[in-house]
Design a protein that fits this description.
single chain; 315 residues; 4-stranded antiparallel β-sheet; Alpha-Beta Plaits; alpha+beta; elongated
């Protein structure tokens, strides 16, 4: 379940309380008149089943509470209450399938912000992958995939398309483009330095690479894997099962493809440069398309549940 804390202007408290009471899956309602000081208002507390939270928040936003007060939600680690158990049983669907769109937008906003930390992870992941492709070391490739933070902006683009949020789309696209551009430029410089030290060579890059040759040889399977990874990653975000993101990260070849593009470019190998760039685009496209379609399907599914979220006998 989720715990909601609302700061509500006094003239809208009755309406907010009515919405909470009308919504299936709510319990533990508490009203503290005049308790809030900044902003001023009444404090309304309640617990709500995850399946009902998005619809309740949507209705509360219509009252303008987010503008003149506040709506805060947090997960409940433990709740020993028969009332809570009954509320969860009454709520339609499964908690794992529920999507909290406001929470998703906030999460993707944070993950898709262009920051020094984000760029640093992109650079480090791409450099690790560069060592992996030159050494034909699958362990380094897997490690680079896990370190790469590029799924955040990809999820942000998908969310922005579904939620019609142009600012989120622009922020995500900027983070994606700048992140990869800086990472690839830094990896080109790394490749030159490693070559000068005798650690990288064109012979290693262009020789047989049974473990990493796939990063510059895109095919239909590459797109299929990207689509499956996009679906899995999106589901892991919307269901709050973030641990699955690690598995998603090591199943796609965005960062290794970017690394191979940079290293091949540093040696003037146009064949691998073009092939790796195509692999990168195939994976980025597959993940974004799959994520968007998955979110659209989830939104359509939960729209059919809305009529079941109002308690019988209420308007």
């Amino acid at each position: 379940m989720l715990h909601l804390r609302l700061i509500v202007p006094a003239d809208r408290t009755d309406d907010a309380v009515r919405l909470v009471r009308e919504t299936v899956g709510t319990t533990h309602l508490v009203v503290l008149p005049g308790a809030a000081r900044e902003p001023e208002g009444d404090v309304v507390l309640c617990d709500v089943a995850r399946e009902s939270a998005d619809e309740l928040v949507r209705r509360l936003r219509r009252l303008g509470i987010q503008r003149d007060g506040a709506i805060t939600a947090e997960s409940i680690g433990m709740s020993l209450s028969d009332h809570a158990d009954r509320a969860e049983r009454e709520a339609p669907g499964s908690p794992a399938d529920a999507v909290l769109w406001e929470q998703l937008e906030e999460a993707t906003n944070e993950e898709s912000s262009l920051s020094i930390t984000y760029v640093a992870f992109m650079v480090l992941a791409t450099m690790i992958a560069a060592c992996g492709v030159v050494l034909d070391n699958a362990v380094l490739i897997v490690g680079a995939m896990a370190v790469g933070p590029d799924f955040g902006p990809l999820a942000g683009i998908s969310t922005a398309v579904v939620q019609r949020a142009p600012r989120l789309a622009a922020r995500s696209l900027l983070a994606l483009l700048v992140g990869f551009a800086v990472a690839m430029a830094a990896t080109v410089v790394l490749s030159w330095g490693m070559t000068a030290l005798g650690l990288f060579s064109a012979e290693r890059l262009e020789g047989p690479r049974p473990n990493t040759g796939f990063v510059y040889s895109p095919d239909a399977l590459s797109f299929a894997v990207a689509v499956m990874a996009g679906i899995a990653g999106t589901l892991s975000l919307t269901s709050a099962k973030s641990g699955a993101l690690v598995g998603v990260a090591i199943s796609v070849t965005t960062v290794p493809a970017a690394a191979n593009t940079a290293v091949a470019l540093s040696f003037g190998d146009l064949t691998q440069t073009v092939g790796s760039a195509e692999q990168l685009l195939v994976n980025l496209t597959g993940i974004t398309v799959a994520g968007t379609v998955t979110l659209l399907a989830q939104k359509s599914l939960w729209s059919t549940q809305r009529k079941r979220l109002t308690k019988p006998g209420t308007p």
